[in-house]
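If your schedule permits, I should be very grateful for your opinion on a structural question. I have a record of one protein: its chain in single-letter code and its fold written as discrete structure tokens. Kindly check, if you would, that the fold set down in the tokens agrees with what the sequence suggests. I remain grateful for any guidance, and I place the record below:

***
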Amino acid sequence: MMSINILAVGKIKEKFFSDAIAEYAKRLARFAKFSITEIDEELLTKDGNDRVRKREGERIIAKAKGHVALLDISGKIISSEELADNIKTLALAGKSEITFVIGGSYGVSDDVRKFADERISFGRITYPHQLMRVILTEQIYRAFMINSGSEYHK
């Protein structure tokens, strides 16, 4: 069974986001082992954003496993079908683990960008980080439903 991980900077604060993520995680359980790991947010100091990105990036790189897909507004814009195809292609190539990375409020370091196997985008819109976790979890579930031939994706 494939392992799907989300590495995200920060914590979910609103219950409705947690509830939505839990629902999609429950649905995903029949297709993959699913986990979310939260990386501590770095406090902004007078040293600036670069220091924040560097320290969060070190923690991201230390925890990322398998094929690493960074969610990046400047990454390749993909559709739900393309995400499904990417997951299927990785599985057929023997990759049993995928880690999706959602950076912090100040973005990610260049080290994380270089470390990632791919950079993907769900569009040029900036989403709140907590909402992006919900969107990503639903899109991963949708990808597995597409790959299973389900009518969930219309």
About this structure: The longest strand covers residues 67-77. The chain has a mean pLDDT of 94. The helical segments are 15-28, 49-63, 80-92, 110-115, 129-147. Strands lie at 2-9, 32-39, 67-77, 97-102, 118-121.
